[in-house]
Write a structure and sequence with these properties.
- The complex is a heterotrimer of chains A (378), B (372) and C (309).
- Chain A is built from 14 helices and five strands.
- With 378 residues, chain A is of the alpha/beta class.
- Chain A folds into two domains: 231 residues, no CATH class; 114 residues, abc type-2 transporter like fold.
- In chain A, helix 3 links the parallel strand 1 and strand 2.
- With 372 residues, chain B is an alpha/beta fold.
- Chain B has two domains: 238 residues, no CATH class; 110 residues, abc type-2 transporter like fold.
- The longest helix of chain B is centred in the middle third of the chain and has 32 residues.
- Chain B is elongated and about 95 Å long.
- Chain C folds into two domains: 220 residues, Rossmann fold (3-Layer(aba) Sandwich); 66 residues, Alpha-Beta Plaits (2-Layer Sandwich).
- In chain C, the strands form three sheets. A six-stranded mixed sheet of chain C has the order 6-7-8-3-9-10, sandwiched between helices.
- The chains are: A alpha/beta (378), B alpha/beta (372), C alpha/beta (309).
- Chains in contact: A-B, A-C.
- At the A-C interface, helix 1 and helix 8 of A face helix 3 of C.
Chain lengths: 378, 372, 309
């Protein structure tokens, strides 16, 4: 294997790249833009849920419910409609997500120990948020119930001694104490951007040679397939690393996403990951004679791969058969790795169970690609 | 304007498309693949949170507490730990997202004042942790209330304030109802921007566009002719995806088919014009791909309300999302599918889409003229 | 090792059911300029690709620079240069960068390459384009560059696939001067072309049609030995009319229009006077008929005509 030939190919790739100003800009700017959009847009947080409240009772009890809701950070009572019809309209227009109706006689029912019922409507098109909202709401109500129960017991002092101890829990949230969605999503964006850049650019670079005819010229020279591939991979690997660095900079300094783990580990695993993606890009190029085919094939692969990587949709919630499928997806491993490095700061040890399969994926992809990529036109 | 010329261009485009198997697959099969993916695989719903339990008390009471967590259906016990170290390991490895640690003197403490337990949630998984916070709190409060009730001998259900909750538009709380209409919009965005910009950019690269320009064909006729096949494909995809969603995934369809057709047509027109414009400006396939990914696909994915609710985003981003055509379509689609919304409610969105269509169409023709 | 640069025996290549090259055999000596002449689709490019190790033959044997084309293609590649039909250069980088690239790929010694580069710029007077991006070059310059990229590493054999397609006459002339000087240096040149005037410049020519070799030999010899009949040139006022008329006459094997001239190929047995008299009665002659040497073109056309019949 000739290092000089690898260097020659490398030089030419870089020369071509640098001459394409627009592409250079896109390659540098696009990841940053993507990160910024993602960083701001991607949030699962359920806070300040727009709520409407109709109080038919106007009692101390009902006002207590109201202030309990208002003081929780989850609900933001924006409207006090006059009628259920008005509330329905608000819901339909999407101005509120939750409509609460306190019936008349609410306080009386509680005093008479009859149990009281509040009417709630939750806009459930986003079922996830809806479930969480319902849970929060019930939590507020349960706390109210307990308070009123204890109050009742205290007033009837005979029963005071019978009040049992309460179980309290201090919920510790590890690694992301503010439950900042961004800290969860941003690291995953690194994966997404890396995939798009390295996979696509690598496969395009080879297909372009085929489309413009220079591949034929290359094949006729004594250059080896490995020399050609390595020479082409290095510049795009470099681009990947630069993009990672750029994204990291924005993530850490602009979004203040904590980066607890080791940078060396991050870049090291990034390189392993890129070997997989570039190998897949190479594989795609062996199936494509035109750029358009390459792009479409790349898209075919990337969309499901990204969606099933665990970056936005938890793999544990997927059906078994699909979960098995994701074991073939290198993205899946790297999403876990990068989140762990960012938020948990773990060392290599706990990550081995992800790094090893990732490396295996890389090998398999490389082998497949090498088998198919032959130095012949046909 | 000569329709004959438009049809001639459209016919050539169609023939080219029909001869390209990969293109055909992307245009027709891929959307269905995506819908299946989303229908089967992808869900935002959080259930069976993997939980690890460390029960140092090992008493009736501790077991009761554990049961109340496990029986709720939200938490699923995956392991019993013997030490905190084990818990740390499991959470670090990502195998557990929630831990419940009951101290050895739990039973005794229950006879006294307060019985603390420790719960740990893996915050690195933001989606799950929200649910963990909500559900664990509720379970504990519920547990406490029951204890109070049984201690006093009162039927606690009589002392509670409960909510009679109705979940509108999505009774079954099926996240697919939420995702699938959004997915349809995303598919059309992809088709419109991505495929269109690629196809036209390719003609620029190959030089055949110059050939076309040298004929008496007008820019408008050229644009229409080229985009017509994609429009047909787009509408076909729309109906195909909707059918799959409704028939196979039980996504309800409560609104008007006519409204669906009109709004989708408008949207397609907007998105196709945008793709055309991108290709005219970039003239290179690779660049067109990158730009359309950035300018239309990504916003369509992230800023349209497809995955993440727009109302939860910062104000500045919400304003930017106003420029994303997908946002309006998703609103309309969800309205039509899930809420049975009529013209009166959807009108503002429709007008916005119409505005976009007009804007992009004009821009596309203008940029084309200027570049020639 | 004998003095033969290329030997080919019964080479065949099928694409599906289509036979592109149908049992072709020939030898090329060292330092020869060997031309492969034929219309588009005859099998020229396919043959060259097999010889260069780009395509695997369906059957048959071949040796290039002493190596077997089926079993040792990589060894062949170290000894040859190739200029493809699309003369593919990297369009977005400069002339010099292209030269450097191919030099690197062939592992040329740096000083040697520097000298060769200077020689190139000197000889072609393309020094001004040294740092210009290839896409901005006129096509003649691009062709020269592509040729040089194929020969700068001093290969033993050079394969040129339609190297002068679409190039102006001056550049074409330069090209062939270059090819001749290569041959003088002992480099074997295998060139495919469909220009018959170029074919005349080759040492030997193989005429290929529909995958088979119709004739092979030195151009002058070929026309002398293989051509049947006599060729007359006459100027007529209405060539097309004269042509269709001539073809109806007995003894006229072929009639081809060249501008305002008509080339008539008469069979050996035919009587020219009779034929011309018959013709003149219907069509007026601008110039009297003159007997001319048959060109390769005439030969080629007649051979094809024979094949077809």
């Amino acid at each position: 294997m000739s290092f000089r030939r690898i260097l020659t190919v490398l030089t030419k790739e870089i020369q071509e790249l640098l001459r394409d100003r627009k592409l250079v800009m896109i390659v540098l700017i696009s990841p940053v833009v993507q990160l910024i959009i993602f960083g701001y847009a991607a949030t699962y947080d359920v806070n300040n849920i727009p709520t409407a409240l109709i109080d038919h009772d106007h009692s101390v009890a009902s006002r207590e419910i109201r202030s309990a809701l208002q003081s929780s950070r989850y609900f933001d009572i924006k409207y006090y409609p006059e009628s259920p019809g008005e509330m329905t309209e608000l819901l339909e227009r999407g101005d509120i997500w939750v409509g609460i109706e306190i019936p008349p006689g609410f306080a009386e029912d509680i005093a008479a120990r009859q149990g009281a019922e509040i009417g709630v409507i939750i806009e459930a098109t986003n079922s996830n948020s809806a479930s969480i909202t319902a849970a929060y709401l019930e939590g507020v109500l349960e706390r109210f119930s307990r308070k009123s129960l204890l109050g009742f017991l205290k007033r009837n002092q005979t029963m005071t001694g019978l009040i049992p101890a309460q179980v309290e829990s201090s919920l510790r949230i590890w690694y992301n104490p503010d439950l900042e969605s961004r800290n969860f999503n941003v690291p995953a964006v690194v994966v997404q951007i890396l995939v798009v850049m390295t996979l696509l650019l690598t496969s395009m670079s080879i297909v372009r040679e085929r489309e413009f005819g220079t591949m034929e010229q290359l094949v006729v020279t004594p250059i080896r397939s490995t020399e050609l591939i390595i020479g082409k991979a290095i510049p795009y690997g470099l681009i990947g690393i630069i993009d990672v660095a750029l994204i990291l900079a924005v993530a850490v300094f602009y979004f203040q996403v904590p980066l607890v783990g080791s940078l060396a580990l991050l870049f090291g695993t990034a390189i392993i990951f890129m070997i997989s993606t570039m190998a897949i890009g190479l594989l795609i190029s062996t199936f494509s004679t035109t750029q358009q085919q390459a792009m479409i094939s790349a898209f075919f692969f990337m969309m499901p791969a990204i969606l099933l990587s665990g970056f936005a949709f938890p793999i544990e919630n997927m059906p078994e058969s699909i979960q098995y499928l994701t074991y073939l997806n290198p993205l899946r491993y790297y999403v876990v790795i990068i989140r762990s490095i960012f938020l948990k700061g773990v060392g290599i040890g706990p990550l081995l169970s992800e790094i090893i399969p990732l490396t295996v994926c890389g090998f398999v992809a490389l082998t497949l690609a090498a088998l198919r990529f032959r130095k012949r036109i046909r | 304007m000569s329709f004959t010329r438009v049809i001639a261009v459209a016919r050539k485009e169609t023939l080219q498309i029909l001869r390209d198997p990969r293109f055909l697959f992307l245009a027709f099969a891929f959307p269905v693949v995506l819908i299946f993916l989303f229908g089967y695989a992808i869900t935002l719903d959080v259930r069976e949170i993997p939980t690890v339990i460390l029960d140092r008390s090992n008493s009736t009471h501790s077991r009761q507490l554990i049961r109340s967590f496990v029986n709720s259906g939200y938490f699923s016990e995956i392991a019993r730990a013997n030490s905190e170290k084990e818990i740390t390991e499991l959470i670090d490895r990502g195998e557990a997202a929630f831990a419940l640690i009951i101290p050895f003197d739990f039973a005794e403490q229950l006879q006294r004042d307060r019985a603390p337990v420790l719960t740990i949630a893996d915050g690195s998984d933001a989606n799950t942790s929200q649910s963990i916070v909500a559900y664990s709190r509720r379970i504990l409060t519920d547990y406490n209330l029951k204890r109070v009730g049984s201690a006093i001998g009162i039927d606690v259900s009589k002392m509670r304030v409960t909510a009679q909750t109705r979940f509108w538009y999505n009774q079954e709380l099926d996240s697919r109802h939420f995702l699938v209409p959004g997915l349809i919009a995303l598919i059309m965005t992809t088709l419109g921007a991505l495929l269109t910009s690629l196809t036209v950019a390719r003609e620029w690269e190959r030089g055949t566009m110059e050939l076309l320009i040298s004929t008496p064909i007008k820019p408008v006729e050229l644009a229409l002719g080229k985009l017509l096949p994609f429009y047909v494909i787009g509408m076909f995809d729309l109906f195909l995806s909707s059918a799959v969603a409704v028939i196979i995934f039980d996504v309800p369809f409560r609104g008007s088919l006519v409204l669906l057709t009109i709004s989708s047509s408008l949207f397609l027109a907007a998105v196709l014009s945008m793709g055309y414009m991108i290709s005219v400006v970039t003239r290179s396939q690779q660049l067109a791909y990158q730009v359309s990914m950035l300018a239309s696909f990504l916003p369509g994915l992230l800023l349209s309300g497809f995955l993440f609710p727009i109302s939860s985003m910062p104000k500045a981003i919400q304003i930017i999302s106003l420029a994303v055509p997908g946002r309006y379509l998703i609103d309309i689609l969800r309205g039509i599918f899930l809420r049975g919304a009529g013209l009166d409610i959807l009108l503002p969105n429709l007008l916005a889409l119409a505005g976009f269509t007009a804007l992009f169409a004009i821009l596309a023709v203008l940029t084309f003229r200027r570049s020639v | 090792m004998n003095d033969l640069a290329v030997t080919v025996e019964n080479l065949r290549r099928k694409f599906g059911s289509f036979v592109a090259v149908d049992g072709v055999s020939f030898d090329i000596g060292r330092g020869e300029i060997f031309g492969f002449l034929g219309p588009n689709g005859a099998g020229k490019s396919t043959t060259i690709r097999m010889l260069c190790g780009l395509l695997r033959p369906t059957s048959g044997e071949g040796r290039v620079a002493g190596f077997d084309i089926t079993r040792q293609p990589e060894k062949i590649k170290t000894r040859i240069g190739y200029m493809s039909q699309k003369f593919s250069l990297y369009r977005t980088i400069t002339v010099e960068e292209n030269l450097d690239f191919y030099a690197g790929v062939y592992l040329m010694e740096r000083r040697h390459h520097r000298d060769r580069k200077d020689e190139f710029f000197r000889q072609t007077e393309l020094g001004a384009f040294r740092n210009r991006v290839v896409s901005s070059l006129p096509s003649g310059a691009r062709q020269l560059l592509a040729l040089f990229c194929a020969i700068q590493h001093r290969p033993q054999i050079v394969f040129l696939d339609e190297p002068t397609a679409g190039v102006d006459p001056t550049a074409r002339r330069y090209f062939w001067d270059k090819i001749n000087s290569l041959a003088d240096e002992g480099i074997t040149v295998f060139v495919t072309t469909h220009y018959l005037d170029e074919a005349e410049e080759c040492d030997r020519v193989a005429m290929i049609f529909e995958g088979k070799i119709a004739a092979i030999g030195a151009p002058a010899e070929l026309t002398r030995t293989r051509f049947k009949g006599r060729v007359f040139r006459l100027g007529v006022e209405n060539p097309l009319q004269a042509r269709s008329l001539a073809l109806t006459l007995d003894g006229v094997n072929d009639a081809v229009v060249f501008g305002s001239e008509l080339h008539l190929t008469l069979g050996d047995a035919a009587n020219p006077d009779t034929i011309f008299r018959q013709l003149e009665s219907r069509v007026s002659f601008a110039d009297a008929p003159v007997l001319i040497e048959p060109t390769l073109e005439d030969l080629f056309v007649s051979l094809i005509g024979e094949e077809r019949r």
